[in-house]
Design brief:
homotetramer; about 20% strand; 14 strands
Chain lengths: ~325, ~325, ~325, ~325
């Protein structure tokens, strides 16, 4: 058993992390941090947390108090800039669900995140924890971005088999990907019956994907009128290998990532509220390119589920402990 | 442990029942019936059923073969008319998720369902299984309708405390409530960005609700542009009792139904993909009426979840075994 | 021709009013007011306003400047409290789309709107302008609320024919009904795949409806996951008259409100982006109540369209000039 | 004035064409064809067509009768295969909204459409009518596909300025793009809160786009949970020219297609229910590629609006007569 503190538990990533911790057989919730809800009972976040049948859940405390709670595992569910400023508590495993520690080079923050990293000297201590490509290797884990996870699940196993000049990633995400903060773009009147790309050509997940692949990619995200889930449609040209075979072999033993049979397309609806991912592989008849499509839940495999998976690997728990992988809900 | 056969496993109610059986600690899947998929592997229904990590799932067989499989429990997930025609296998517990056995009086089928009941002599053998109002009491269980469940959770505890001439139930349901059959009204081009009432004044759940309450009610369902979930907004006039207090007492020990604190409204989003229900109670300032709002998932507490709950009660399992009640997903 | 000033042109009601003014054969846009956009070109609100083919549109000025512009008609598209504080410019026709002048009795504002009316002495000068029930009769017009419009189109012609103790109005509206202001409830992550009632038993449109009908009603609004449109489902008991016949006669000559044939239900999709309304009439088989359903667009007949219709009547233009009534878009 | 017959008026494209014909100052509706509604009044398609204020609309007749009605213009709103089999009535202008006459080479039908063209000898007589790239030049006009229109508006003016090996088109369309036919994929339970690509690498609009551009492209369509509208996100690499400048010059005089200012993204919501298109142009920081995004309404500029625009050009009417281009609806 390991004890857990969640800092930023009232955001989307925080609530989803809390959800999985409560269902995890080997994690015990120790501290629930939220600066806006500090002092209030858990039910203040969601009435479901105040019901019959729930294990006793502690009251909210401040994020600082949660960080200092001495828990074995600390999940940072904060904004990029807030997380970047955190001094990691000694001895705890820390998983940062933000982008605050995903790059060793602090210049990336100036160039892509719009702030100068407040603790650049510590960046080298963090590892990028994508279990299927770059498993966590240290007690400070930078949890990958949701788009980056989908793109890398599709492309990382192929990185040596594809031409480096021709990779395009076109992604579409539900609205929770942008967090609970109120902005003009998050207003339901803008999102409903709408679709639009955003931060075209300049989204911060582009350098994250490129960094792992080792070459630049074109990446465009779009906002979907759905609550959860993400699809990344990736276009690549094989140097010769059978890309489907490469992917099938890479994921043959995975209980988290599935390569779908030929002709079956990934669907948001099948991955929503799960911690798994689906990959479809297709040949383009006209150009001979290969189209690899990855679907996952931005809050599951794209955030909280992956954070738990990383902890499972670090603590030697079963890799899928506490994950949502088995439902066939409509 | 009890063995289970699901007839009609490829419809929405069937798939959701299958989902809960696979997650249930004391139920073992024995036979999977679907006339359209007979002979095919489970993955033909949903690719998730063909993945790593799944317990072994049998191939589809015909519904008739599933009924004759000798399972301890048979779930009938068929159309009203198909289910009505089934001769219950001897000795099995049978839970009918359709409306085919909800009325002792066969005339209701002619008047409200549009067919004459093919086995009217057997109707008396079935009990109506709504755990919070009319717990199952025999091996043949008619599982309540989704709208009827919501209306009765809100109103059944109040039936002696309200005026019988003034009850209105206005309900709104997601599109899965109408099943997987293709109809002009189920086309996405009709459902998206739309809302409309249907079968106004003549929906078959009206007599079901009235039968349990003991007096007639006005009931109107509306189709929402959402996948799952249902809200019933019920208007009643108290004879004098504090209706909130009556409901709070009735559900004080329930792990399935929650009465929300004053001022908190039920929301579809909190009950979707769960087997629980939320109830809100409000006073109308102008008329003095009481407005009781119940939200549940039409496929959860409104269908498959309730079917499992009924089986749990009949077999003496923990009432909530296998149910989805604890998540706080966004 | 009449000249027009729009105050609050950057909100939903303001933008829709602007849209209809630009399409109106007898109205000329004179002043475009918005405190947040003052000084900017019209294209700052919406890039469509900066395109080829548009008639020349003036720059935004402050709301105060718009009010003082000397236009023949002033549309107030402000919040309730802002509009209530406006001193009507002399000689202009003023149409207030907010609730700031819908009641002669200032006590209603304290009791239902959460503020004390800042100019109570002026309230008697305003008339309530619902063309089909209470046509505008003076130069100061309080434009009805969206819910009130739907409820009154359904019930006002029936007010003397129904029992006064038994009227329930259950309404469902798209998200634009709540305006462009950012609130936790307007966040797309809350609205999508969700439905919930709000201000149950205490919404300010209840006294507005009751005031016109002459008796109290129970009214509950719900927020739909759609952008536009509103359905009010009204339950009433006839004293004896044929309520369908009464409604058909009342609207026989209307080009704005249609009573649908028997068996046809109103649909949001058919009234969205129009200035018309549809009414369906149904008998409830169990209780004998009559269910009258009205659908309209909350921003059309429920706001900007009705404001234009009121101006048409006051100026003697054709009643439907500039209205959107003829499309059959999917 | 010209008289009009619509064949297939009960489908989406047919209803939208009818809608525009009724609003057109120089077109007169002469014959309304639908095999399923023949003999019924226009209100059988949509109750709005039976209302006060409508110009007199003829009853439905069979498609064959509509084709033989002698109208000056015939719109074919039929399936690909039905339209392909039509012998064009002599002397009429015929606009085929299906894909039945978009290729001079009949082999394309075998390879991409799944049928052998029933009248291959006539294909040479048809011209491809995309006003901004390939204006109609004869009385038999093949109206472009919706995806092809968006891709070509974005890329056709750039065809000589971009590298031919690197063009990717990732498109997302609302559900009306697939027509009114009931299919498992059109069921609302599949479409809501979902997103999936379809016909990946083998959609029939890929050769249509490639044919106009003169080189192969990779094209993937996705189905959005919205009713109307389409976005095509196109990735290309300039040989050196300033691609934004090329597009701005190409569309400088257009009242139908707008190039948005720098930093402004196209949005479905602004083009829905219009006959215009929006184009945004962006540089990709990492790869130097140019991303050109085009949004339009699949039923407007992508179908019926373009059909009307083609007729306007052929008859010498004002190019935008009867088109919906001026609204700023929310």
């Amino acid at each position: 058993m390991a004890t857990v503190a969640v800092a930023g538990a009232s955001g989307y990533a925080g609530q989803e992390t809390l959800d999985r911790v409560l269902a995890h057989p080997a994690l015990e919730l120790w501290a629930l941090g939220s600066d806006s809800l500090a002092g209030q009972p858990a039910g203040a976040l969601d009435p479901r947390l105040g019901r019959n049948g729930w294990s006793r859940i502690p009251r909210f405390i401040t994020n600082e108090a949660a960080l200092e709670s001495g828990a074995d595992v600390v999940f940072l569910c904060l904004s990029h800039e807030e997380a970047a400023a955190v001094e990691p508590p000694p001895r705890s495993v820390v998983v940062d669900l933000s982008g605050g520690h995903r790059f060793a080079d602090p210049a990336v923050y100036d160039a892509w995140y719009g702030f100068s990293h407040p603790r650049p000297e510590g960046l080298e201590s963090w590892c990028y924890g994508l279990p299927e490509a770059s498993p966590p290797a240290g007690r400070l884990v930078a949890n990958p971005g949701c788009y980056a996870t989908a793109a890398l699940l599709a492309l990382w196993p192929l990185r040596d088999e594809i031409e480096r000049e021709a990779v395009v990633i076109d992604a579409k995400s539900g609205t929770t990907g942008a967090g609970r903060t109120l902005t003009p773009a998050s207003h339901a009147g803008v999102v409903l019956e709408n679709l639009a790309p955003y931060r075209v050509g300049e989204h911060q997940h582009a350098p994250e994907i490129s960094s792992l692949l080792g070459f630049p990619v074109a990446f465009t995200p779009h906002l979907l009128p759905v609550r959860r889930g993400l699809v990344a449609t990736c276009y690549a040209r094989s140097k010769g290998a059978d890309l489907r075979a490469v992917l099938e072999e890479h994921y043959a033993e995975s209980h988290v990532v599935s390569v779908l049979p030929e002709g079956v397309v990934p669907e948001l609806a099948r991955v929503q509220q799960t911690d798994g991912a689906e990959i479809g592989v297709f040949d383009d008849r006209l150009t001979g390119m290969t189209i690899v499509v990855c679907a996952l839940d931005n809050l599951g495999k794209g955030a909280a589920g992956q954070a738990i998976q990383n902890v499972n690997l670090l603590f030697g728990f079963e890799e899928t402990a506490g994950l949502r992988l088995s439902g066939v809900l409509v």
